[in-house]
Design goal:
The structure is a single chain. Helices cover about 45% and strands about 15% of the residues. The protein is α/β, with parallel strands linked by helices and about 375 residues long. The strands form two sheets. It has an eight-stranded parallel β-barrel, surrounded by four helices. The chain has a four-stranded antiparallel beta sheet with strand order 5-6-11-10. Helix 5 packs across helix 6 and helix 5 packs across helix 7. The protein starts with a strand and ends with a helix.
């Protein structure tokens, strides 16, 4: 697999020269300065590509060319937005950038309740506490009918949390769930928003009446519209699984499991319609056998996210070691069956001062460097196996 790294542009504190020195071969990035829904001009694409190549690297994957909410829920301007999306794809294709990671998650790109959960060795990891998330949903968002989405054990744990909750604690949950995990990925909420909760609630309203069946239909509509451009320029679209792979906040979620993956691949059987195999996202649900899924969908995987989660009996989960035996088997699968496919590590621990650097959540330098070393060692071992 090609060793790639998610990089957030020239203002990233982690420089391309640093990445070249630690064995990175390809860059995963986006034109973060262009607002969602606007066209990525050929000039802007070429400018970024040339900048990366001047540092001895290549632009391997776009993550992401964002899909506007209106395309997802089927708003009146979706055809106009799809035409702009097609134009951006063509400009990328003309410049030779041909792997596009995107997601079709409504409103929320990914969710964690704790961004610095302490580990026994002094590092910290991302963590999803289901009871804390329920508190956010029920007592901060005040979403109608939210209690019905949680089991009795989770609600009981939430009540214990409620007894000791403070305004500072509520602010932390809002910041972790809808601000710090969203803004840096061209998300719907930014750190500059004065009332993020109210804005978030207004976004949830857009999906009233949109169920999973309708969202699948909207995804199919989008993919069928862009496939001719993908065919012309040999562009691979690879959808990111829902993170976590659970039904949350009353929103439809349609890339959460084996059946969901099979459904969107069958709906648009064009080989350019493929998967970002994010082992971490899929393993956030105890219902997913990620090793089996990797073997089943290797042929339709165009991009790999090498990370993994441990799910606890109460439904909480946290990021696990990049030497987790499941991840070793997943790396073995893709290294043998999809040689050359781009792979990046992410959601690595904060360590050795990472926590003081202000890195984007989940995207530390030392933690990812350690993870890349681990995965590189697995790859080398697999290649020795023949």
């Amino acid at each position: 697999m090609e060793k790639t790294w998610r990089w957030f542009g020239p203002n990233d504190k982690i420089t391309l020269d640093m990445l070249r020195q630690i064995g990175v071969e390809g860059i995963v990035t986006s034109l973060h300065h262009i607002p969602n829904g606007e066209v990525w001009s050929e000039e802007e694409v070429k400018k970024m590509k040339d900048y990366i190549e001047a540092h001895g690297l290549r632009w391997s994957v776009v993550e992401s060319l964002p899909v506007s909410e209106s395309i997802k829920y089927g708003g009146p301007d979706r055809d106009e937005l799809i035409e702009k999306y097609k134009e951006s794809l063509a400009n990328l294709g003309r410049c030779g950038v041909k792997t596009i990671c995107y997601n079709f998650m409504p409103v929320l790109d990914w969710a964690r309740t704790d961004l610095e959960y302490p580990n026994p060795d002094g590092t910290s990891n991302l963590y999803f506490n289901r009871a804390e998330f329920a508190y956010f949903d029920i007592h901060i968002l005040h979403r109608e009918g939210a209690e019905a989405d949680y089991d009795a054990e989770t609600l009981a744990r939430m009540e214990e949390i409620r007894k000791n909750m403070t305004p500072e604690g509520e602010h932390r949950l809002v910041d972790n769930i809808i601000v710090r995990t969203q803004g840096f990925v061209n998300g719907n909420i930014s750190e500059n928003d004065k009332e993020p909760v109210e804005k978030f609630k207004s976004l949830l309203e857009l999906y009233k009446g949109i169920d999973a069946e309708q969202l699948r239909a909207n995804m199919k509509y989008f993919l069928e519209a862009i496939m001719p451009v993908c065919d012309e320029y040999d562009i691979n679209m690879c959808v990111h699984p829902d993170d976590p792979p659970l039904q949350i906040l009353g929103l439809p979620r349609i890339v959460t499991c084996d059946a969901d993956i099979q459904a969107f691949l069958n709906a648009v059987p064009n080989p350019h319609n493929g998967l970002t195999f994010c082992a971490g996202s899929l393993s956030g649900g105890a219902h997913n056998d990620v090793v089996a899924l990797a073997k089943k969908y290797a042929g339709r995987t165009h991009f790999v996210h090498a990370r993994i989660c441990n799910v606890f009996p109460n439904g909480d989960f946290k990021e696990s070691s990049h030497l987790d035996p499941r991840l070793i088997e997943i790396v073995r699968t893709f290294e043998k069956e999809r040689p050359g496919v781009p792979m990046r590590v992410d959601h690595a621990p904060l360590m050795l001062g990472d926590e003081k650097m202000g890195y984007n959540a989940g995207y530390s330098f030392h933690g990812r460097m350690l993870a890349l070393g681990m995965v590189s060692g697995i790859m080398a071992t697999v290649n020795q196996e023949g």
